[in-house]
Design a protein that fits this description.
Blueprint: H1 5-13, E1 17-21, H2 22-35, E2 40-45, H3 53-57, E3 62-65, H4 68-76, E4 84-86, H5 93-103, E5 108-111, H6 114-127, E6 131-137, H7 147-155, E7 163-171, H8 179-200, E8 206-210, H9 228-239, E9 246-251, H10 253-256, E10 260-272, E11 275-280, E12 301-305, E13 308-311, E14 318-323, E15 332-339, E16 347-350, E17 372-377, E18 381-386
Parallel strand pairs: 1-17, 2-3, 2-9, 3-4, 4-5, 5-6, 6-7, 7-8, 8-9, 11-14
Antiparallel strand pairs: 1-10, 10-11, 10-16, 12-13, 12-16, 14-15, 17-18
The structure holds pyridoxal-5'-phosphate.
The site of pyridoxal-5'-phosphate has 14 residues, from strand 9 and helix 10.
Organism: Candidatus Weimeria bifida
Keywords: Pyridoxal phosphate
Protein name: Diaminopimelate decarboxylase
Amino acid sequence: MSGNFLTEAFCRYKSPCYVFDSDALLRRVAFFKEIFPEKVNINYCMKANPFLIEASLEFTDRIEVCSFGEFLITKALGIPAEKLLISGVLKKEEDVEEIVDHCREKAIYTAESISQLEELERTARKYDICLNVYLRLTSGNQFGMDEEVIIDALNNINAYGHLRFYGIHYFSGTQKHKLRIHEREIKKLDDFISDLEEKTGQKVSHLEYGSGFGVPYFIDQKEDATSEEYLRDFSSLLENMRYSGEISIEMGRALAFDCGYYLTTIRDIKTNRGRTYAIADGGIHQINYDGQLRGMYTPYLELIRDGNIYSIDSEGEFHYTICGSLCTANDIMVADLKSQKLNTGDTIVFKRAGAYSLYEGMQLFLSHELPAVALYSRKEGLRLAREMQETFMLNTVRK
Ligand SMILES: Cc1ncc(COP(=O)(O)O)c(C=O)c1O
């Protein structure tokens, strides 16, 4: 089999590295747009993968920004404030000040508590502007506010002369694989919106709903929540709501998971007590699949050897435990890989590593490097987004 952009990335950026295919992100957005009702917007949660925000700009409606650090990324890239939804369970006074100073009335803001509302009001008053604010409804955890708190706030809206009630924001969790969960949430939102409108006289014109669609990471895992059939049923649920305002579906994982590849090279192979271990130069500090447990599940993999890319021969007669380079017996990326014979120098490509994967490991453990990150698109080819970074200095006492 011949090489492709992954073999090229390996050649240029070495191992370990990540490659994100921005065309794949656009294909995902197009797939959702094609199925969702026309009135539905698609917003990209950048926490899933900040390297993809520029690619997401053209076809998604907004980017959800969940921390001051994320805001600084959008600012550094010159992302227009009109494209931003500023959220986050903690909004520090000095951060709100800087964000509002930069974004002014162009961005939309969420309030997750009464003190956040007051903070936004204070800052908007200072600049003599009026901010659009979503009120986030809780799902029973530290995020958002109770129904009654939101209703009371809206009945007291005159206290917030520099805020405009924009709508309701709701997100209850990720990796949802069952339509009945979405059905229950959509009904709950629909009932709450009616109740709120009746009790406050306020019209809800926007609903920002983080659907948390589940995605399949492992071989034999079913494609359920992002299958066409599921999404058509999900769309019918939206269409059948009594609520008739605008809807934005906010997603991270379901848009980005499929566009990421993690490349790590096998540097040693040995057999201990009858089990063959392949030791790679990456590890679980650099890659995480939601639901993975000591490599018990096999992700979608490919193999780079001598500049060519090959499928893993799942009928092969060899068994390997693919480990990383951490000093913990938990550093198992695949517990039992059935494949053709592997050699040192072979590079394993972990697929579907586009969302969260790079961010959920313990990257500073053992002072290993942060992998290089490359972006790929057909139009622009490969480009380096981040060089490999040493981390030892972050774990070194300053002299
Ligand atoms: C408020 C909010 N919206 C959306 C998301 C994205 O969830 P997912 O990646 O499952 O689409 C998250 C993830 O944590 C979130 O906190």
